[in-house]
Design goal:
Elements (H helix, E strand, L loop, with lengths): L14 H10 L11 H14 L4 E5 L2 H12 L4 E6 L3 H4 L4 H6 L3 E5 L8 H14 L5 E8 L10 H13 L4 E5 L2 H8 L3 H4 L7 E5 L9 E5 L8 H7 L8 H11 L3 H21 L5 E2 L7 E6 L1 H9 L5 E2 L9 E6 L6 H16 L1
Parallel strand pairs: 2-3, 2-4, 4-5, 5-6
Antiparallel strand pairs: 1-7, 6-7, 8-9, 9-11, 10-11
Helix pairs in contact: 1-11, 2-11, 6-7, 8-12, 12-14, 13-14
Length: 350
């Protein structure tokens, strides 16, 4: 495996998930979710979250987000989120398309975490503008955020309280939800419905799966006819057992949390090492598995020359030096982290 810190999407499928896919690849079973794997997933997911849920496997995070929002937001509605949220900047208009026209309204926040007062202010403005403005429709939080930070439970609850006060459902983009749960040291229930989350886009692909995400409703009544939205969007696999089998393996024996724990630990090690490098400056708290750091151009160029993979990250205003993003995963070897830090330190010494 190359020394690639570009994304947690670059990894191979973890062994347990691949084994589950192979184990499911036997015999003839009912199609379109009528199989035993998909039925079992409903029970397992309810156990994981400590309440009865309705879970719908899909194969991309974009589908999970767009379809979840389409279920809870009207076409003339607004979704309040961070201005760097994937639903705003990375999903090619899919949320707007599948909601039939809802508007994503992003708020600035240096640490990636929107504040309850921002939501309250936007709702008040919409109410003042009346029919001329999109109607408040939902709130969406990214957990972990696009800046690698994690909302603390009290922060999720505070935003959720504002949403509930105004009758708005709260969605969570959990592409890196496992990383957040590990950081928080809490239960999945505490991180979601006990803190006011109504629907979760649960990610597994970044954390060891082949192609497995899910939309999780914490009130099954909210999921009415959702299976038709999924079908219309082309995300009802005829051989759905192969997606469900991945998610079952993901949850089994805490695999999802173990994978995330390793990814977080590798990011923490990177961050600690970079703090000791002259000229390097961490740009955000390292809560999950992403590290944003600014370093002199000479160091960044040398790392690229040596074949380390990462993204230069455009920022405005630009920090001193060059901002880069490093992402670790369940498959990141300690040796790659050590080699990266050694290369940075050698380059910094000149």
């Amino acid at each position: 495996m190359s020394r690639n810190f570009k994304s947690d999407n670059v990894t191979p499928v973890c062994d347990a998930v691949m084994a589950a896919i192979n184990a499911a690849n036997t015999g003839s079973v009912p199609s379109y979710g009528g199989d035993e794997f998909t039925q079992a997933l409903q029970t397992v997911a309810s156990e994981v979250f400590g309440t009865e849920v309705a879970i719908f496997p899909v194969t991309t995070g974009t589908a999970a987000n767009a379809l979840a929002l389409s279920q809870i937001v009207p076409p003339y509605g607004a979704v309040y989120c961070h201005d760097a949220a994937h639903i705003v900047s990375d999903e090619c208009g899919a949320p707007e398309f599948f909601t039939g026209g809802a508007k994503m309204i992003g708020f600035p926040a240096a640490d990636g975490k929107i504040r309850p007062e921002q939501v309250a202010s936007a709702i008040a403005f919409a109410e003042d503008m009346g029919v001329h403005h999109v109607k408040p429709g939902a709130v969406s939080l990214s957990q972990a955020t696009e800046w690698g930070t994690v909302y603390e439970l009290h922060e999720v609850s505070a935003v959720g309280a504002v949403a509930k006060q105004h009758g708005l459902p709260m969605h969570m983009d959990g592409a890196r939800f496992a990383n957040a749960v590990v950081h928080l040291g809490c239960t999945p229930a505490e991180a979601t419905w006990k803190s006011g989350v109504d629907v979760l886009s649960l990610g597994a692909t970044k954390n060891g799966a082949l192609c497995a995400e899910a939309v999780v409703f914490f009130d099954p009544a909210r999921a009415r006819d959702f299976e038709r939205r999924r079908k219309q969007a082309g995300h009802l696999w005829s051989k759905l057992r192969f997606v469900s089998a991945q998610l079952l393996a993901y949850f089994e024996n805490g695999l999802w949390l173990g994978n995330a724990r390793h990814a977080n630990a590798m990011a923490s090690t990177l961050a600690q090492g970079l703090r000791n490098v002259s000229g390097a400056a961490l740009l955000q708290s390292v809560d999950a598995n992403e590290v944003f750091v600014a370093m002199p151009e000479a160091i960044v160029a040398e790392l690229e020359r040596q074949g380390f993979g990462f993204y230069r990250w455009p920022l405005s205003p630009a920090p001193t030096g060059v901002a880069i993003r490093l992402v670790t995963s369940y498959a990141t070897p300690q040796a790659h982290v050590d080699e990266f830090l050694a290369a940075v330190q050698a380059s910094a010494r000149g």
